[in-house]
Amino acid sequence: MTQIEPDRDDAAWGPRGTAGVSFAAGLSFDAVDAVLGGKKVLDGLSLALKPGEIVCLLGESGSGKSTLLRVAAGILPVTAGQVRINERVVAAAGFSLPPDRRGIGMMFQDFALFPHLSLLENVTFGLRRIGRAAALAQARQALRRVGLAERERDYPHMLSGGQQQRLALARSIAPRPGLLMLDEPFSSLDARMRETVRGETLAILRETHATTIIVTHDPEEAMLLGDRVALLRRGRIAQIDTARAIYRTPVDLGAARFFSPLSEIVAKVSSGMAATPLGPVPAPGRADGARIVVALRPVGPLELVAPGQGVPGRIVSIRGAVGIDLCEVRVEGLDRPLEIRQASDAALVPGKDIHLRLRPEHVLVFDLD
Ligand SMILES: Nc1ncnc2c1ncn2[C@@H]1O[C@H](COP(=O)(O)OP(=O)(O)OP(=O)(O)O)[C@@H](O)[C@H]1O
User: Fold this and answer.
1) How high is the ipTM of this complex?
2) Ligand 1, atom 13: nearest CA belongs to which residue?
3) How far is CA 246 from CA 132, 239, 256, in A?
4) Confidence bin at 16 (pLDDT 50/70/90)
5) What domains does the chain contain, in order, with CATH numbers?
6) Distance between CA atoms of residues 295 and 202, nearest Å
7) What positions does the domain ABC transporter occupy (predicted)?
8) With 0-12 CB in 10 A as exposed, 13-18 as middle and 19+ as buried, what is 327?
9) Is the dihedral of CA 69, 70, 73, 78 positive or negative?
10) For ligand 1, is residue 41 a contact (CB within 6 Å)?
11) pLDDT tens digits for 78-100?
């Protein structure tokens, strides 16, 4: 058996070490189709990532998120279009560069660890090409970076969920891939652990410089982690932009609904304005008689004001969260209560009469489909 040399480099890496740096790669999908079970799951999908960029992929269940990662990694072929890595075509109809020649690291939702291999062996598994000594050094560096250096002889079942996530991350970054595909990397962790692990993972991704796609179901997570957020719908990108931009100017009502609950009011346009029970809302560019949806996020468009300065409403329910109250407010003329988030206030109680002022500049307006 090979004698494992103690690592002499500890001091240089600080308390936890750093992740090895990758050569970030550009990744692009040009009008890609992919078929599963006779169904077109990616349908003319186009998407381009700049080197070193982190893009979070959001979308309904079944919209094709995992399929997109599998196509990038070379696990699934394309039936039309092209996938390019650094301008080199790696997939096209009838052609697929094998996964191990693409320089892509993949991390799966269930971590896909090898139960019969030690932590160190789990990480060196993907490093067979570089020779035993270099593989051990790189694997140890990755384990140290995720805080598992002391556990290298243990087996995956001896780790907590959070530690397993860190091992899976170490395994995917150890070969220093230029591209990383992370499929719901935090979904099996509980809420508190998710927050810590998420921050740590982001720090590691920034260190490696790897160009990364992260699939998530959680809009807040996407907004925190992604340089840009891409919204996938029925196998195509419905919108891609910074999280702030998508939040402020979603491309349609479906995209808006993805990022927060909405109170939706249908209204008719007259002379560029739409009358709602909360007050008039500008509807520029819409013809007279057109029907629109005025959508209100729980934070921003409505403020509590003194009597006489806004429309009357009544609080019908209150749920407390950390530092905020989630209020449902009934307003005459609306079929459903409005959902409003307010800074916690003991004076806000169910049954209380309040007054609301609409801030039209914070309202989203969409054509009624
Ligand atoms: N092996 C398969 N055979 C046939 N259809 C499949 C297969 N795998 C996935 N699909 C279908 O392809 C579509 C896209 O699946 P995919 O896993 O990419 O979606 P997703 O957006 O990642 O969903 P989720 O968020 O639920 O993981 C779904 O309709 C799914 O049922």
Assistant:
1) 0.95
2) 62
3) 47, 8, 8
4) low
5) 10-248 (3.40.50.300), 260-367 (no CATH)
6) 33
7) 27-259
8) buried
9) negative
10) yes
11) 999 999 999 899 999 999 999 98
**CA angle (52 as vertex; 51, 55 as ends), nearest 5:** 100
Structure tokens at 302: 């409505």
pLDDT tens-place string over residues 207-226? 888 999 999 988 889 989 99
What's the pLDDT score for residue 10? Answer: 31
Per the structure block, which two tokens stand in for 17?
Answer: 């070490």
- In ligand 1, which atom is closest to the CA atom of 235? 14
- Of 343, 355, 290, 292, which is closest to residue 318 (Cα–Cα)? 343
Give how far Cα 283 sits from Cα of 54, 211, 272, 294, Å.
Answer: 35, 40, 5, 9
The residue behind tokens 């052609």 is 95
- Asked if residue 163 has its Cβ within 6 Å of ligand 1, the reply is no
Q: What is the pLDDT of residue 22?
A: 62
Nearest CA to ligand 1 atom 16: 64
CA–centroid distance for 199 within its chain: 13
Q: How far is the CA of 32 from the centre of ligand 1 (A)?
A: 16
